[in-house]
Specification:
single chain; mainly alpha; Arc Repressor Mutant, subunit A; 2 domains; three-stranded antiparallel sheet; 9 helices; globular; Tscrpt_reg_HTH_GntR; transcription regulation; GntR family transcriptional regulator; DNA-binding
């Protein structure tokens, strides 16, 4: 999406991912326009795209539902994300043009700097996903992966307890992916991508275990 519709999508997606639009809540189109300070047409186009990507559900007579955060959904999307992301990083390592050199090196440099907040980490992660997907030079793949990554981040941000520990772990796993792409080592990049997916699966299972423990303690 380009122009104001693309900007509306990006702003609304960020509100959803960070929970500023609360999971399970109903909001109106007018309220979304007020939140992001954009007009009806771009907001409506963004809502349609978000609906296709399963980030909102539109009920014409009621409003726009921000979907609940579900462990089952997270497990299901990680199954789909795993091969798509592995393919993307492999293609990026094989196909990337020199135009991506500076962006990739910049991302690696940012990883070596302290990431003290979830906002910092989210910005870096979003830039990394976008750059790698673009370097893969396959728009169908990019379109398929982007919403899965956003929904997965939403779950992660919602359930993080020790933010600094998880940020450090995520950064440690992201580094080899970027280095594999920079060094044109597709196997390194793909293996690192699978390791990151393994971490996300383990994180989700820990959420399940915590919920069981909390329920047993009641």
């Amino acid at each position: 999406m380009d122009g104001q519709a693309g900007e509306a999508y990006a702003r609304l997606e960020k509100l959803i991912v960070f929970g500023e639009l609360e999971a399970g809540s109903l909001v109106s189109e007018k309220r979304l326009m007020e939140l992001i300070q954009l007009g009806r047409t771009p907001v409506r186009e963004a809502i349609q795209s978000l609906s296709r990507h399963r980030m909102v559900r539109v009920y014409p007579s009621k409003g726009i539902l921000i979907p609940p955060i579900s462990v089952e959904d997270q497990f299901n999307l990680l199954v789909v994300r795993r091969p798509l992301e592995a393919t993307a990083v492999r293609l990026a390592a094989l196909r990337r043009g020199t135009a991506y050199d500076d962006a990739l090196e910049g991302l690696i440099s940012r990883l070596s700097s302290p990431l003290s907040t979830l906002d910092d980490y989210a910005d870096l992660l979003g830039d990394a996903h976008h750059t790698v997907a673009a370097a893969a030079n396959n728009p169908y793949l990019s379109d398929a992966i982007a919403p899965l990554q956003s929904l997965s981040r939403r779950f992660w941000f919602h359930h993080v307890i020790d933010a600094q520990q998880e940020i450090e772990m995520g950064a440690e796993l992201l580094g080899p992916i970027l280095r594999g792409v920079v060094e044109r080592e597709p196997t390194l990049a793909e293996d690192a991508s699978l390791a990151l997916n393994d971490y996300l699966v383990e994180f989700t299972q820990e959420v399940v275990n915590r919920s069981r423990f909390d329920a047993a303690a009641v």
